[in-house]
Specification:
single chain, alpha/beta, Nucleotidyltransferase, domain 5, 2 domains, about 10% strand
Length: about 325
């Protein structure tokens, strides 16, 4: 079994556009079963759109514009990469986050190539393995993981081959905590984006803070309406499943068996309707909840604005999760 440590860079940008971001560099290191480096692959790619790199990407990656101008397009490069991959009788990929696979699949489809190889390939998200092994919850960069593990950082960050080499060092150091079966992943299409899922999560937090019944229909009608287009049934089903999974993690509202405030697991205080007031679950109560959610919807909007501002200041990420 070989392990292909994969990293990509893409032509991210700070402005909105309907045109896709594309892979501009692929770097990979092949490790054998003893985790020794056998060989490497590195290639720049001239993108179809935004082939002139913006100042942010040039500064971040250090890739000269003239090198991109001389580079081959995605089709010949990905074919060369697949030929290189074919030297392994059996292999599994290792990435830092899931973005690398996503970008390769999207570019493969954009160029109307067969994506069967990538859809069937197995990879390990080393970021998740590392976080679990270190007992962490927040994502970290490759550079931060190297420092944490006491591994010298060599090469240029945000160049694909150098990042793949550094990721290989982390893989060797954390290999003992890898579960070959449960950590195995395959790429799956998603129909929602990170911002949309974040909006759903913010809505859950709002509902929790206001002691609302966590109800998908109420949230979609009074919070998500106008923010997320749910016309695609695949996106709607995906976001509903995401909502249900996230809502299950949230503490239950009072009256639904939440442990007492002292954390001792005592019986929760039962919520009774005020005399003459609307009973829980009544149409009037739901109406009041909806009105409060409409009023507090601005909180979700403000959270999105704040997050967007932070993302603009940080700039777009490369192919690795951050």
């Amino acid at each position: 079994m070989d392990y292909i440590i994969l990293d990509i860079e893409f032509n991210g940008r700070k402005f909105a556009s309907e045109l896709p971001m594309e892979v501009i560099e692929i770097g990979a290191v092949r490790l054998n079963g003893e985790l020794a480096a056998v060989d490497e692959f590195s290639a720049l790619i001239k993108p179809v759109y935004f082939s002139k790199l913006n100042s942010f990407i040039k500064k971040k990656t250090g890739i000269p514009q003239e090198d991109i101008d001389r580079a081959s397009g995605f089709v010949p490069v990905i074919r060369s990469f697949l030929t290189w991959l074919g030297r392994s009788e059996e292999c599994r990929f290792v990435t830092w986050g899931g973005e690398d696979f996503k970008r390769i699949v999207l570019d493969t489809r954009m160029h109307k190539l067969d994506d069967a190889y990538w859809m069937s390939a197995v990879y390990y998200d080393l970021l998740k393995v590392y976080l679990r092994g270190r007992g962490l919850t927040n994502d970290v960069s490759v550079e931060a993981a190297l420092e944490d593990l006491g591994i010298p950082s060599e090469g240029s960050a945000h160049r694909a081959l150098d990042d793949a080499r550094m990721t290989a060092e982390i893989f060797r150091k954390t290999f003992a905590v890898l579960d070959p079966e449960s950590d195995a992943r395959q790429y799956k299409d998603t129909f929602s984006n990170a911002k949309e899922r974040r909006t759903v999560k913010n809505a859950i937090r709002l509902a929790q803070s206001q002691k609302f019944e966590l109800n998908w229909e109420l949230l979609t009608e009074h919070v998500l309406a106008g923010k997320i287009d749910l016309a695609d049934p695949r996106k709607a089903a995906e976001l509903k499943a995401y909502f249900e999974a996230e809502a299950a993690k949230a503490p239950k509202p009072r009256g639904q068996g939440r442990p007492g405030r002292d954390g001792g697991g005592g019986k929760a205080e039962s919520r009774q309707p005020d005399a003459g007031g609307p009973g829980e679950g009544s149409a009037e109560a739901e109406s009041m909840q909806a009105e409060r959610m409409e009023t507090d919807r601005a909180e979700v909007d403000r959270a999105e604005v704040d997050r967007a501002g932070a993302e603009r200041s940080d700039g777009p990420g490369d192919g690795s999760a951050v």
